[in-house]
Amino acid sequence: MSDQAPAGASSPARHRSRSLRTHLRFLAATTAVLTLTAAGSVGGWWVAQQAADRHRATSVLLVTPLPGNPFSPGGRGDELVNLETEAQLVRSDAVAELVARDLGLSAEPSELLEVVSVDVPANTQLLRITAEAGSDTDARRLAQGFADTFLAYRSARTQSSMFDQLELARQQVKERVRERVDLVDKLQAAAPDSAAATLIGQQIVDLSTQIGLLRARASELEAGSLDSGQVITPASAAPVGLPGGTVGAAVAGGLVGAALGLLLVLAVARLDPRVRAATELRGDEVPLLGCVSADAGQDPAGVSGLRAALLAALPRHPSVLLTAGCSPRDDLPDREVVDALVRSLAAGGLRVAELELDGAVEPVGTAASLLDLLLDPSRSTALDADPDGVLRVGGATAAEHLDEVAVAARTGAVLQELRLRMDVVVLRGRTLASPLAQAAAAHTDLVLLQVHGGRTSRRSLWSAVQDARTWGAVQVSTVLVTGPGSGGQRWTRPGPVLVPERPPRQDVA
Question: What transmembrane ranges does the database entry give (predicted)?
Fold first, then answer.
């Protein structure tokens, strides 16, 4: 008798490993959400702190048209269309230099212009000047300084332009008066009623008209207003910081970070190639027969639903069922699930045989092993069932012995012999990779693949399905195994069935 423990003895350790992995995944997701929440809170606090350190003040100007202003020639207040040009003039280097000189600042014009902005409200004659500084006082001084300096600069430019135009008009008047005096002398020397006298007289009239126009223009310039505008709202400081202060900004940033963390967790979950829920399998071409807890002994409803779906899916009776996992890299099949299913079938009055396809397992219940049956299929008639009514046949003490005799003909002969005595023959294998499982697949009525929620990848699942079909399986179905550490979502079929506890096996020497 071998001292090697049955494979099912490792189930508590597997469940503990699954539970650890589930806890680690939950810890990673929680850590990601908390980290992004903390980062969002710190970011919100930092932004609010930066906003609190910047003080703003705004001054509002009413701009009026000026005579002689090259930027608004002949304009009226309701027709002033060049406010954008005036706004650019506020932010010119010339105005910034005057502001720095008047306020006694050592900053360069470019540095002042970086903290000053000007905007034009729609359909108005207003300019809104906003300045930023380290304090409310400095911000108000800077905004008011730009407003006053711009108005003075604009008035000075207009006054200079008007003075130049007035001097030009007066000079032209003097020149026209001299020309008219010369023409009057020529008219007196010319013969009366002559053509020359008539021409000179017309020239005198034209000069008199020009002199009148020039004098009128000079009078208009002398009477022109130099009011360039006025400050209708003196510089006043705006509220500092963000609404809600640093605490509100930190809370808002934390909420944004938490939302981003949840979105990240959901995105990672959607990109996860592993099967986690029964809903991911229901729409596939491979039928899902049920969902059973990894601790199948504590899930009679799930086992009962699996048994009912299995009997409905089997195309004929007696039937041969092959159960296996998808891939050893994902997880080995749960022995508890198969044991509970076999006991449930036997409790329903069916004659059930359970064959172990993997080696290194002692024969149980009888002196014959699966290796013995492969060598002599007729020995199946001498096998006896266990006390719970299940006929169990172990594999062999060495796996290589099974692989040496695992040919389809011998496997088919053994299964045919068992069909004559049993209603359901259950073949238990780890995966479909062993030669014996591949040889048996062609002689089965259904291959049942165990999918472990949160562990089995879709790639390994479909690889196992293709392998089963390649080796001649007539029908392939799945069962989702959930429970401690599996990470899958529960789903069970209705219909309670009490499954009797399986008595402990007795090793045969």
Answer: 24-48, 247-269
Question: Measured between alpha carbons, how far is 377 from 393 in angstroms, rounded to an integer?
Answer: 13
- Of 262, 260, 242, nearest to 45 by C-alpha is 242
- Per the listing, tokens 């048209």 go with 65
> Strand ranges (DSSP E) for 98-187?
116-119, 126-133
Q: What local confidence, expressed as pLDDT, does residue 49 receive?
A: 63
> Residues with Cβ < 8 Å from 21, sequence gap 6 or more?
454, 455, 485, 487
Q: According to the model, what pLDDT value does residue 84 have? A: 84
**One-letter amino acid of 442:** A
Beta bridge mates, 447: 322, 476
> ∠ CA 318-319-323 to the nearest 5 degrees?
150
One-letter identity of residue 469? R
Q: What is the pLDDT of residue 496?
A: 33
Q: Which pLDDT belongs to residue 368?
A: 59
For residues 333 and 39, give the distance between their C-alpha atoms in angstroms, rounded to a whole number.
43
Nearest to 473 by CA among 280, 282, 286: 286
Q: At what angle do helices 83-90 and 136-189 cross, to 10 degrees?
A: 120
The set of long-range contacts for 406-413, using a CB threshold of 8 Å and a minimum separation of 24, is: 406/374, 406/434, 406/435, 406/436, 406/438, 406/439, 407/439, 408/439, 408/442, 408/443, 410/374, 410/375, 410/377, 410/439, 411/374, 411/436, 411/439, 411/440, 411/443, 412/442, 412/443, 413/377
Task: Name residues of the chain where pLDDT drops below 70.
Answer: 1-23, 25, 45-46, 48-53, 66-81, 221-227, 238-247, 268-273, 276-277, 279-280, 282-284, 328-334, 359-385, 389, 395-410, 483-509
Euclidean distance between the first and final Cα of the chain, in Å?
A: 5
pLDDT of residue 168: 85
Nearest by Cα to 434 from 477, 397, 402: 402
Helix (H, G, I), strand (E, B) or coil at 448: strand
**What confidence score (pLDDT) does residue 413 get?**
76
Of 265, 291, 275, 263, nearest to 487 by C-alpha is: 275
Cα–Cα distance, 55 to 44 (Å, whole number)? 18
d(CA 294, CA 254): 39
DSSP 457: B
d(CA 317, CA 233): 96
pLDDT of residue 482: 81
Question: In the chain, what are the domains?
Answer: 24-51+244-271 (no CATH), 55-237 (3.30.1890), 279-482 (3.40.50.300)
Model pLDDT, residue 504: 41
For residue 420, what are the contacts with CB-CB under 8 A and spacing of at least 6? none
**Which token pair is 250?**
């930190």
Token pair of 345, please? 């079938």
Count other Cβ atoms within 10 Å, centred on residue 404.
13
